[in-house]
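Suppose a colleague, Dr. K., hands you the sequence of a protein chain of 166 amino acids and asks what its three-dimensional shape might be. Before reaching for any lab equipment, you can write down a predicted structure in token form. Begin with the sequence itself:
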Amino acid sequence: MKMTARGSLAALMTCMAAAGAATPAAADAVPVSVPLDAVKTTLGVDTPRVGTGVPVPVVGAPEVRHHSGDLLPASLVPVVPIGTDLGSTLVSTPVPNLLGDPATDQEGGLEAPATPLRAKTPGVGLGGLLTAPDAGNSGVPNLAKPELGVIAPELIGTPSALLGLR
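The predicted structure, expressed as tokens, is then:
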């Protein structure tokens, strides 16, 4: 192999190793704020401030299940996990003359912190079509009674919110 080919191959392997070692930067949520300034300038009233985060779902690898003694996988339609973070949300608005006195002007708000949310898609399980190879049947697997089932979807998360005055 020539020196130029070896150098090119070494450079290619170095680039592939660097690309494989680099982890992609994934955003948990994309921040979004609702622009209401035009309402304030047009109508002359104080408008609420609304800011939230749009979740970015990340799809995981399908979960394939095998049972001992079966030749086929148990999942006909595998369960696919999906994870995301619900972005933090803040809605605040001025509350004037709370007690009839301008000195008691405050700001009311609804705040929901960012929380993780995990989900799994439904799946279909199929089992028992073929057994393990049978020595008494010249190593040919036997037929078994088919079993069919639905794997229930899951949704796991604990969103919370706080409503108050500041």
